[in-house]
Amino acid sequence: MEKVEVKELLEAGVHFGHLTRKWNPNMAPYIYMERNGIHIINLYKTAAKIQETSDALAKIAASGKKILFVATKKQAKDIVAEKAAAVNQPYITERWPGGMLTNFVTIRKAVKKMASIDRMKKDGTFNSLSKKERLQVNRLRAKLEKNLGSISDMTRLPGALFVVDIMREHIAIKEAQKLNIPIFAMVDTNSDPREVDYLIPANDDASKSIDKILSIVTSAVADGLNERKAERAEKEGKAQKTEAKKEAKPAKKAEPAPVAAQEEE
């Protein structure tokens, strides 16, 4: 995991909160001061929360569960897509599909539809369609790819959600709460930290701030994945050694049959 340096957080503008009149009083413990009508976030507390969040995310990744990253705001979507894809995690950066979690079966059907269109194109069935039908299928495929392409490999509900801007992604938050899925989030001074399980008090509007936090967080996820990979390799190695020992062990000699007792005369 990347080391959390308060100086780097400061340079990335992580400390800038919202206007004081827009604040949520529940964020008071994470606010350092007010300057020019803007709340300043206590970066030492941010650093501690990043460490706590990163440790928890690394454990989830090491367990083999997926972490779904959610960010649909303009300044966050490209960063989240890049960082999440780099560690092979699903992400939603377009409009949140209602029922994404609470109606996951229906979402999976849409993903399967996308896969079936791809099969049609491979086996030649697509070419047998009329020009109009091909156009309709291509439009449907493009729409599904845009909204669900990043979660096509997610065959079960995620082990956690990581959200940028919990006020904007309130539908995702509510769905995760209903299903008791742990919620990790960047929380600005205008949001209610009680909505999430693990918060990182931070500026969720500036791209530099989002990039910095996501870099640290996804680095922790990568560490968890590497730990899982190492454990699996170790288990496989032990299994191979055990198998090799069994094969190398000489066959047990057959014991001579007991001599039959002489019959009494």
The count of strands amounts to 8
For the largest beta sheet, what order do the strands appear in spatially?
Answer: 5-4-6-7-8
Distance between the termini: 88 Å
Strand content: 5-15%
Can you put this structure into words, describing what you see?
The chain has 265 residues and is α/β, with parallel strands linked by helices. The chain is 48% helix and 12% strand. The protein has 7 helices and 8 strands; from the N terminus they run H-E-E-E-H-E-H-E-H-H-E-H-E-E-H. The protein has a 5-stranded parallel beta sheet, with helices on both faces. The protein has a 3-stranded antiparallel beta sheet with strand order 1-3-2. Strand 2 and strand 3 form a beta hairpin. The radius of gyration is 27 Å and the shape is flat. It starts with 5 loop residues before the first helix and ends in a 17-residue tail after the last helix.
Provide a brief overview of the structure.
With 265 residues, the chain is α/β, with parallel strands linked by helices.
